[in-house]
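Retry 2 of 3 after timeout on previous attempt. Resubmitting structure tokens to design endpoint.
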């Protein structure tokens, strides 16, 4: 299990894409579970599952393809 807290935060878009490609490859090729915190909705949309918190409470729980992640 890999825990990633804002892995693309404060990075330029090119480096952020490289990091996301690396994480995606680790997940797909090594079957690595990744738990990630992000405020970037475009990154959250790539997840298999999402949990959205509001004031410390779970607001939305589901598969990202079936769950809209509001801005």
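Retry 2 succeeded. Sequence:
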């Amino acid at each position: 299990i890999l825990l990633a807290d804002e892995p693309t935060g404060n990075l330029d878009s090119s480096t952020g894409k490289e990091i996301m490609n690396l994480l995606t490859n680790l997940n797909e090729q090594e079957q690595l579970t990744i738990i990630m915190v992000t405020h970037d909705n475009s990154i959250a949309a790539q997840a298999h599952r999402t949990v959205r918190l509001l004031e410390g409470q779970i607001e939305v729980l589901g598969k990202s393809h079936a769950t809209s992640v509001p801005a």
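Attempt log closed. The helical segments are 13-30, 41-44.
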